[in-house]
């Protein structure tokens, strides 16, 4: 929950940053692009560490980096120092996600893995939503920098708590290798054709999803004349709906299999975006966005499950690092790409642009074939 608190605050701040630092939309998009590039570079070393270093030490390190970077963000006086501070903060994300998800796959039964991922993502969404909602509140009271001060202290305290925890070291990779099925046997057990197809499908899908998440508040403010604080509230409310979506995505993965669940959820995102593009009233915009948020956040549970299915247990950290590396690469370049497209046309272009990539990602996903053993009868 804590590591995701600031996941979307810099995106929600784009309209504020444009006004405060007198930037173009393309320049302001760097607050999303540059930190994503830093996270991208950290994915592979984080994966190697996850298979070798104890989980509690890595989680403590991630919380410490997150908390100290938040304090640094609160003291920034110009745009480039803000970009540097946000970039340092993103180092925490791969350190946490790769080691944390690897640990979940070790302690959860295979038939319950998708649901375990659902609970994990639900708490992450809770943190993201809390960050955006608290940002909206502080924008109207003390200013946006105070939200980073608010969360820094509990993050640092939680980091110490994680370091002292004995629970995180009770289950080791060696203990679970004998009971975890190695679903794919090939000369290259981690980076194989199945994983490559999956990464291509997810990368294409991520272009569409990132475009919407990056510029949704900008769309609401500039195209629909919604205030900045109200736009952040709508955006943050979508994240809270994502808590339910994450649990629903985990449940669907258990019932119908991760691949089919993922395909259906992406199609749901496309339909809800199509509806959102034609609405103008605040209440209808909010409802359609919440519907989109439900489907958009639900995809993470089946995606995490698929990665666990198609990578061997002894190299799961490396498998997740490759997955997050590919995803972070797309996330880092998409804001600039989408901003360029928006400046060529207008802000409304994010909808057909995003829908096209979501559709293409779904089509490529159908080429993925692997023994999905996580289904339970209805």
Number of domains: 1
**Overall 3D form:** globular
Task: Using the CA coordinates, give the radius of gyration.
Answer: 20 Å
Strand content is: under 5%
SSE sequence, one letter per element: HHHHHHHHHHHHHHHHH
- Uncertain regions spanning at least 5 consecutive residues: 170-188
| Major sheet details | none
Distance between the termini: 31 Å
CATH architecture: Up-down Bundle
Work out the helix count. Answer: 17
Q: In the CATH hierarchy, what is the superfamily? A: MFS general substrate transporter like domains
- Helicity level, as a percent range? over 70%
Name of the CATH first level: Mainly Alpha
Mean pLDDT: 81
Q: Which class do the helix and strand fractions yield?
A: mainly alpha
How many beta strands in the DSSP annotation?
0
Which fold does the CATH topology refer to? Growth Hormone, Chain: A
């Amino acid at each position: 929950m804590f590591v995701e608190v600031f996941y979307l605050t810099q995106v929600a701040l784009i309209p504020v940053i444009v006004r405060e630092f007198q930037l173009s939309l393309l320049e302001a998009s760097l607050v999303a692009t540059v930190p994503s590039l830093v996270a991208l570079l950290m994915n592979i070393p984080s994966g190697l560490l996850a298979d070798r270093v104890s989980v509690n030490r890595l989680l403590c390190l991630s919380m410490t980096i997150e908390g100290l970077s938040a304090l640094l963000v609160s003291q920034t006086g110009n745009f480039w120092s803000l970009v540097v501070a946000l970039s340092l903060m993103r180092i925490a994300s791969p350190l946490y996600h790769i080691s944390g998800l690897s640990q979940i796959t070790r302690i959860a039964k295979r038939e319950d893995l998708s649901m375990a991922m659902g609970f994990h993502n639900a708490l992450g969404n809770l943190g993201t939503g809390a960050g955006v909602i608290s940002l909206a509140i502080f924008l109207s009271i003390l200013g946006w920098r105070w939200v980073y001060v608010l969360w820094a202290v509990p993050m640092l305290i939680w980091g110490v708590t994680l370091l002292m925890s004995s629970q995180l070291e009770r289950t080791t990779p060696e203990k679970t290798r004998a009971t975890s099925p190695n679903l794919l046997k090939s000369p290259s057990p981690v980076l194989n054709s199945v994983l490559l197809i999956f990464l291509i499908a997810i990368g294409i899908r991520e272009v569409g999803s990132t475009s919407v998440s990056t510029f949704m508040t900008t769309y609401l403010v500039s195209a629909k004349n919604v205030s900045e604080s109200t736009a952040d509230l709508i955006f943050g409310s979508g994240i809270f709906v994502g808590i339910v979506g994450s649990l629903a995505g985990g449940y669907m993965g258990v019932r119908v299999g991760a691949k089919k669940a993922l395909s259906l959820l992406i199609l749901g995102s496309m339909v809800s975006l199509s509806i959102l593009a034609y609405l103008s009233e605040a209440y209808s915009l909010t409802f359609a966005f919440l519907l989109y948020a439900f489907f958009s956040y639900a995809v993470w549970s089946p995606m995490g499950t698929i990665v666990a299915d198609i990578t061997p247990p002894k190299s799961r950290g490396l498998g997740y690092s490759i997955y997050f590396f590919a995803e972070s690469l797309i996330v880092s370049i998409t804001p600039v790409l989408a901003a360029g497209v928006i400046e060529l046309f207008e802000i409304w272009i994010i909808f057909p642009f995003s829908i096209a990539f979501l559709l293409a990602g779904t089509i490529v996903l159908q080429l993925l074939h692997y023994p999905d053993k996580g289904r339970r009868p209805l």
